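Support case: NAP complex. Customer-provided input:
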Amino acid sequence: MGRRSFLGFLATQYDPLPPVEPQDLSGKTVLVVGANIGLGYEAAKHFANMKPGKLILACRTVEKGKQAAHSTILFFPFEIFANVAPVILTAIKEETSFENIEARAVDLSVSQSVVDFADLFVKEEDRLDVYVYNAGVALDTHTRTVDDWETTLQVNDLSSMLLTVLLLPLMLKSPDPKFSPRAVIVASDVHFAAVITPEELASPNLLETFNDKEHCTPHGDIQRRVMSGRYNLSKLLNVFFVRELASRLPANSPLIVNAVNPGLCHSGLSRNARFPTSLFMFIFKALVARTTEMGSRPLVWAATAARHREHDLRGAYVSDSGVKEPSDFVLSEEGARVQKRLWNETADALTKVSPKFKAIVDEYLSG
Ligand SMILES: NC(=O)c1ccc[n+]([C@@H]2O[C@H](COP(=O)([O-])OP(=O)(O)OC[C@H]3O[C@@H](n4cnc5c(N)ncnc54)[C@H](OP(=O)(O)O)[C@@H]3O)[C@@H](O)[C@H]2O)c1
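Agent response - structure generated as follows:
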């Protein structure tokens, strides 16, 4: 069954992952969303080494993407105690000698920015073969976006579903019989620890409950629980989204969608953690975290490897460069019901953001 023990987690953290297997990406377009630092930046370097037709870095600003491609920078990932040291990020072009890198801007905490990004991308690009939605935040305090969503929920979940669906037609546009397009959503093993309470389940709309300000900021003990568990929940929602999307694609669709767990890695992800969580993360990461490069290998594996057994990757949960079972809850009947419910509720919310979203769901996916 889909369980993780702490000892099992530690064992995999210390187990070195196999190096990235270079694949032939010639003529292919690769898009990494959230590529200026961390796992996305390291994954982008691996893709650049495979010399695709084009590598596109989608970052909060064009400058951040250009910087990752062209300039060596010193990145300070921490506020206090959140990471070990400043990191030198070498220019991807310099390190890989790959020239065809483009930067595009998208702010995933603003739904209009996601819609504009997708519109322009579909208009200007003629294909999309490898798509990695890597961007994410881990906030344990409640903040709201301009769209009135709780920030982690919007960046990690709503925007991943919105962008992935808006890019679906392009991914399906130029099928190459020898190369199935891949869409990879970066999830996490922390989804094993996510809890959806009976009270939340009993509410009329689960997504609205997760987003509700009063729910996110209640008084007393519960206050810590809701927001301290928010990141884990957002990663559970990633796994649900991937499984539901895969189940709605036609069985013979060339598109392979999967969720990937990079393991615990050094990156900028803990930069918003507050004391004492920041101190705990500092010590814990110093002891067990994978290097950022090591953590990027499962992303690249999920996006390019195992071409001879792609069927196994459909809707799969990829971890440690292999297909693994997701949590018992995901595999349970209750989990399957929640998965469908969340799809429907999120689709309703995203249809209000973009009518194209519904049109694509109706045309390309089954009900
Ligand atoms: N590190 C781990 O231990 C670990 C473990 C499991 C899963 N993950 C997942 O791995 C993925 C990558 O995280 P990471 O560890 O590499 O963290 P990171 O170093 O903080 O990188 C996160 C990336 O997401 C981008 N991003 C965040 N909010 C954005 C927004 N509103 N608009 C556009 N881009 C935005 C960041 O851009 P800015 O620099 O502009 O903020 C950055 O490029 C995340 O999905 C995370 O949940 C990480």
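The beta strands are 29-33, 54-59, 73-75, 87-89, 101-105, 130-133, 182-186, 256-261, 316-319, 323-324.

Case will auto-close in a few days if no follow-up is received.
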